Amino acid sequence: MADQEEWSSNANEALNISFVQAGQQSPVKLSTFHPKFTYPIFGEEECIFGYQGLNITVRFAAHDLLPNLSVKYDKKFKTVNDTEALNIEETLKEWMPEVSFEPPAEFNHQIQYDTAASEWKPPGELVESYQSRGRDFEIWCADLIDPAVRQLIDRIQILISLFIEGGTPIPLDDADWSLAKWRIFFVYERSTSLASSSTSPYSLVGYCSTYRFNTYSPSIRTSPSEGKTPLTFTLPPDATTSTKPTSQETTDPNTTPFSLSNLPFRARISQFLILPSHQSHSHGTRLYQTIYTHFLRTPACTEITVEDPNEAFDDLRDYCDYTHLLTTPTFPLLTLPTTLPPTLFAKRPGTRVPTAELLPLDRLASLRHHHKLAPRQFARLVEMHLLSTIPAVIRASGTARLTQKARAKGDDDRRWYYWRLLVKQRVYKRNRDVLAQLERTDRVEKCEETVGEVVGEYERLLRRMRERGGGDTMTLSSRIGVEGAEESEGKGLVNGMAAADTGA
After folding, report:
1. For a Cys staple, 308 with which of 180, 224, 459, 479, CB 3.0–4.6 Å?
2. What is the pLDDT of residues 436-494, one digit of tens each?
3. String of DSSP letters for 288-320
4. DSSP code of residue 373
5. Which of 53-67, 132-146, 239-253 comes out lowest in average pLDDT?
6. Pairing between strand 265-274 and 301-306?
7. CB 30, CB 65: distance < 8 Å
C-alpha cells in the first residue's frame, strides 16, 4: 500500500489546462486552471498510478482551440509483472484529437508564427456584441454540420467531461442530418491590443450546444368549398437521384413544399460551459439571454428547454426568464383573487377549492406559448411571482394564519392559502406515483414539507434577484444528454438534478 501511495498522483491536481496565444517572442498563457473532476477519464478514484512529480499540461490556442498535450514527471514506475504505470497518452487518445499529440515545440511554433491567426474569425453568424468591465465580447452561432464548427468542438469538448457532471462528448461521426440539428453558440473576447502580428484578436470565453427536437404539430387548412381538409406536403426530391416532381405535385394547390429545417422543433440547451477564468463576469447570463432571444425569434421553434439542469443553472435560468417576463405587459399584473363564491366553501364533505378559478388559465397558456417556456419552468415563474405579491410578514407566518383557510378574514391570508393550494396541487400531480404509495397522513405531511421547501427556494431566489442587480455571481452548468431525462423537479420529493457546476 505504501508503494502504491508513493507512486499515485491526484489526477485533478496533476492536470493543468491553459489557453495560450502568440506573444512578442513566444506563446503566452491567458489563463491556467485545474479540472473540476477527472473520473470520466482516470476512474472513480481520480488517481494516476506510476509516476512521481507528475505534471500533465493540456494547452489550447485561445482562438481556434488547437490542442496540445505534454506529460512530464520526475520518476516513472518500472513494470513489475502485470503492474505498470498508466499510459497517459494512450488513455487520452480516446478524448483528444490526433493533432493534440504533436511535440510541444511544434505547437509553440505554430502558435507563435501562424500569420493567419490575426485574420481568424469564429465560424457562423455574429448574433450579439457586448461589453463587460471595459472589454469587448461577441457571441457567434452556427450549426455543427459546418466543418469549422465541428473542428472547434472536436478540440474543446474534453472540457465537458472535466467540468460538467455526467457530461459526455457529442458524437461527431453522426450522419449530416443529425449534426445539422445541433446549433453551437460561442462566446469570444475580442481584443484590440495585440502582442504581435500572429496574435488573434479572439480568445474563447465559453460555449453552449443546443439540439433541435422536431415535434409533430398537426395543421389544417380551411377551404371555402370543401371545409376543413388535412394539410398535405411534398418531401424535397432526393439530391442523389434525378426524380422530378409530377405535374400534379407542381400544380396541386393543397401541396406545400417545405424544408426539413423549417419543421416545428423544441430547442434543448444541452452543454453550457463558461471557462473558470471568465466566471462571475455575467457571461453566463449574456449567453443564456442570447440563446433564448435567438430561438424566441425563430418561427419554427415552439419551446425552449434545458437538458437536466442542476440547481445553479436553474438559478441563472430563473433570473433570466423571470426578468424577461417582468418586461411584458401582462405578467407583472398577475395576482391571486381574494374571494371566490362562498357557496364553494360550505362545510360539506368532499367540497374542494376550485383551483381552476384561481388563475386565468387561458391567458397563462397563451403567455407561455408566446414566450416558448417549458410548462414546469413557466409554472415555477408564475408561482414565484404570485408569492412576491403576498406581504413578507404573511409568508413568514407559515401555516399559523391558515386555520380558517379560504374563510380567513384577511385578503392576504386568503391569497396565501390559495397560493399554497396551487403549489400542493402541482407537487402532487408531478409526484402522484410516489405519493400514492404513502398513507394519507404521510402524504399530506410530505406535501406540506415540499411546499415549505418551495417557499424557501423562491424566497432565496427573490432575495438574490433584489441583491443582484446587474451583476452575475452565480455558477451554472447543464448536463449533456440528447436522449436523457426531461427536466426533473429536483426539490423535495423528487431529487434528480445533475450536480454539475461550471460557472457563469
Report:
1. 479
2. 888 888 888 888 888 889 999 999 999 988 887 633 333 333 433 322 223 333 333 32
3. HHHHHHHHHT-TTEEEEEESSB-HHHHHHHHHH
4. B
5. 239-253
6. parallel
7. no
pLDDT digits (tens, 9 = 90+) for 315-345: 999 999 999 999 999 999 999 888 776 665 5
CB 191 within 8 A of CB 120: no
Assign 3-class secondary structure to 399-462. Answer: CCCCCCHHHCCCHHHHHHHHHHHHHHHHHHHHCHHHHCCCCHHHHHHHHHHHHHHHHHHHHHHH
Residue with cell string 411571482: 385
For residue 98, what is its C-alpha cell?
Answer: 490526433
In what helix (H) or strand (E) does residue 14 lie, and over which residues does it extend?
helix 11-14
pTM equals 0.83
- Tens of pLDDT, residue by residue over 341-368, are 666 555 554 556 677 778 889 999 999 9
Reduced to 3 DSSP states, what percent helix, strand and coil does the chain have, rounded to the nearest 5?
40, 20, 40
The Cβ of residue 14 has, within 10 Å, a number of other Cβ atoms equal to 22
For 16, the grid coordinates are: 493543468
Please count the other Cβ atoms lying within 10 Å of the Cβ belonging to residue 498: 24
Give the per-residue pLDDT at 406: 57
**Phi and psi torsions of 267, nearest 5°:** -85, 130
Q: Is-catalytic flag, 307?
A: yes
The pLDDT, as a whole number, for residue 231 is: 47
Packed helices 311-325 and 440-468: angle between N→C axes, nearest 10 degrees: 70
Catalytic, out of 189, 307, 457, 489: 307
Which residue, among 362, 391, 313, 336, has the nearest Cα to 321 in the 3D structure?
A: 313
Give the Å distances, CA to CA, from 28 to 18, 22, 122, 179, 205. Answer: 10, 6, 21, 34, 17
Buried b (16+ CB within 10 A) or exposed e, 340-359: eeeeeeeeeeeeebeeeebb
Measured between alpha carbons, how far is 84 from 150 in angstroms, rounded to an integer?
A: 36
Distance separating alpha carbons of residues 482 and 162, to the nearest angstrom: 19
